[in-house]
Amino acid sequence: MEVNVTTQGDVTIVDLSGDIDGRTSPQAQSVISANLSDGVKLLLNMTQVPYMSSAGLRMLLLVYRQIIAKQGKVVLVGLSEDLQDTMAATGFLDHFDTFGTVEDGITHLNA
To answer: Which residues face 44 on adjacent strands?
Structure first.
């Protein structure tokens, strides 16, 4: 698992690469949480995430709650069809706006 953080304007972009599971989700959560500030605009680029376990879903929910507590916004970008299906079946997509491209996600966060 690789986690890379960049910024574009006032949007924090977190590029995730690799499986998100019980072994890797603590690292991802730690890096993401370290980049959360009041009013954060966070884009999680999941284009390179082929698999996410229930631990990954839990990590996303914890990050979502942290962002809402800080009056911020979060979007998910590049979810595979399998991840979309899993997140839809478990109700997770109700919490996140999702987009196909980083550009579309940034546009939404800046609207």
So the answer is: 14, 76
The answer to whether the beta carbons of residues 28 and 62 sit under 8 Å apart is no
- 103 with 8: CB under 8 angstroms? no
pLDDT band at 43 (very low <50, low <70, confident <90, very high): very high
- What are the backbone dihedrals phi and psi of residue 74, each rounded to the nearest 5 degrees, phi first? -140, 140
Element (H, E) at 69: helix 54-69
* CATH number (domain holding residue 40): 3.30.750.24
For residue 43, what are the domain limits?
2-109
Task: Please tell me whether the overall predicted TM-score, pTM, comes out greater than 0.70 for this model.
Answer: yes
Report the number of distinct structural domains present in the chain: 1
The β-bridge relationship of strands 2-8 and 11-17 is antiparallel
Query: Which residues have a Cβ under 8 Å from the Cβ of 72 and sit 6 or more positions away?
Result: 36, 37, 38, 39, 40, 41, 42
H or E stretch covering 100: none
